[in-house]
Structure formats: structure tokens, C-alpha cells
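Protocol check, entry for the methods section draft. Step 1: assemble the input record (protein sequence plus ligand SMILES). Step 2: submit for complex structure prediction. Step 3: store the C-alpha cells unaltered in the notebook. Ligand used here: pyridoxal-5'-phosphate. Step 1 record:
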Amino acid sequence: MGKTNAADDSTLLIHGGISRDRFTGAVNVPIYQTSTYAQEIPGIHQGYEYSRTGNPTREALEALIADLEHGTKGFAFASGMAAIDAVLHLFKSGDRLILSDNVYGGTFRILDKIFKQFGLTYTLVDTSDLKQIEAAIGPDVAAVYVETPTNPLLKIADLAAIAQITKRHTIRLIVDNTFYTPYLQKPLDFGGDIVIHSATKYLGGHSDLVAGLVVVKDKETAEQLAFIQNAVGAVAGPFDSFLLIRGIRTLGVRLDRHVENAEYLAEYLAQSPDVKKVYYPGLADAEGYEINKKQAKNGGAMISFELTEGHDLNAFFRSLKTITLAESLGGVESLVCHPAQMTHASIPADVRHAAGISDELIRFSVGIEGKEDLKNDLDNAFAASRS
Ligand SMILES: *Cc1c(COP(=O)(O)O)cnc(C)c1O
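Step 3, stored output:
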């Protein structure tokens, strides 16, 4: 941890990791835009040899995310997918992973289309159901990989209970914490071994960068992952690392506002005659509400919903004025997407439907605009799409 006695995450977001430049005292770690570093005699240097292996700006970011997630070491990558790719390189041919059945589409795709070719397989289960996880475990299973909440159905997995299972079988528990960030949920505190982030989303927070982060709990995995990060090389550049540190400093105030808006709009959607079903883990009658409350601060700011019969989806999307139809999530601006045709199009329709992702489902990343403006925008679009 950096030079701070922070007990509160709001402080840690600003002062965690390496929050100042140790060479000049600058209150922001500068963008060390360099590929290499001078050595005095071969092997004698100031801790840096080559920027794929280590860079002071990236290092400050890696120390910060490790502090925030209560882990031993953090790693920064060029994208969330590069982070996931690095973690999957911890496994070998013949290993099998148990995977949430509605994970991020790209996570499914990299396993199904790339790692499967090399003999790393997967089994999809509903990870909100402990019995399904237990039943899928066999001698070849090397890890359970979950999102909680899942994308896009926002199902909740019981992290502490799953950790009991993975510990009993001495396998790893990997958690993609993109939807909540450590400000809302710290999976390592509940027995997780590895946390993954698409930092492109809330951590960056301004839809202006693509990056990924990993935090591990034990030293041995940290050494393996450092080796993989350097060997494969999909590292975050110094400028993106700087932007990400800058984004993380305001994560607390942003998320407080994101969640305030989301709670308000989830209530509104739940009562709307235009809406058939709302998925939001912060609603008291949501499936998994109690488990979520045990392990997370609140229900976050992602909402999914289905319109009632007779709505024209394209008319709905076209009528929105403030809310933008776009992939991605977690930025200050509100976004909606249509998972079946956008984020989850890489999952075959039968697999998608089996996981409960209907063709009517809309995913909503609630931004930090005025909540009344967002409500009115939805209201108008509902009216315009009604037949
Ligand atoms: C976006 C996303 C990813 C992939 O991250 P990129 O930064 O787009 O490569 C992985 N997991 C989740 C949950 C995501 O939302």
C-alpha cells in the first residue's frame, strides 16, 4: 500500500497505490512515455529495463487496483479481453473451467473459439445455483469463473459459498468484477483468488479508453501472471494508465450518483405498464437480493428490462434523445444496448435463449445525468414505440 492510512475507499481511491511521483513529488504520477531505461552496467538499473516488463505509470495503476481490491498484486492490460486472455494462460490443455451461463459475450467467444482449440474447455452453468456448480465439478476442472452480477441478466452468485466449493476442491475462483468495481464489491474478501476488470467501463468511467486489470491474492499466482504479462505483452500503455488513474480518483462520487439514478429508474421501470420485466439486483424483490446485500454495497447501476408485447424495439431506440444506443457501459453518459444483436451476438441464439437472454431484452447503463431527464427520455420512447 502507498503512504496512506486510508480506512475509507473514498480516500484509498485518491491516495492508494503509488499516488505521487517518487522522483519529483508531483502529485500525479507522470506519463512515463518511454520504452527503455538506461543501465549503469549490464543488469544494474533503477528498477526498470523495458516498458513491456515494467513502466512507472503502469506500476502506479497496478499498485492502486491491488490496494482497492485487497489483493497482493495488480496487472494492467491493453483491454479487458487482454486481461482475461492473460488469466486463461494460467491453465493448460486438458483443464476445464466452469463458467457463468450469461457471461460477457467476448469471454464466451475467447474460450469457445480460441482456447478450445488448445484443449482448454468449459462448462456453462447457472452460477447463481450452487448445486449446478457442484454437479459440474470433475477432476479436470481447474477453476470456477463467475460474474456477479452477470451480464446482461444481472444474476447474483454467492461468492463466499462458491469459494467454499472451490477451496474444497483446491481449484481457483475467478471473478469478473467489471459491473461493480471494488468500490461496491471486493471479491477477494469473500474467498475469490483472481479478480478481473474491463477498466474500459466504470473504472475509466468516461468512455475514452480501453483497458483491463487483474488482481490476484496469492504470491505464486502473482509470479505466474507477471511472467505471462511480460511474455504475451498485451500491456496497458503509459497514457492509458494515466487516464485510468485519473478516472479511478473520481470513481466513488461517480458511482454514488450512478447508483442513485439507477435505483430511481429501476423503481420507475418496475411500475411502468410498458415494461414486462426488470432485472436489477438492488430491487428488494429481485432474485439474489439478499446475497447481493451480503457481498456488495448496493445493486450497482446496470439495469436490464423487457418491454411488453407490441412495442417496436427499433422505434424505441430511435426515439431516445439523451440516452445513446451503443455498446459498452459504465461511462458518465447513459447507454442502452440490445444484447441479442450487439454485445451478445457472438453467442449462438440457442445458447443465448437457453440462458434466458431473450430477443426483447434491453440493457441499460445508467449514467450520471439528471434522473428526471432520463426518466422523461424513457417515457417518450415508450410512447413512441407503443403500437
Ligand atoms: C467489456 C467487458 C469485458 C471486455 O473488456 P474490454 O475492455 O472491452 O476488452 C469483459 N467483461 C465484462 C463484464 C465486460 O463488460
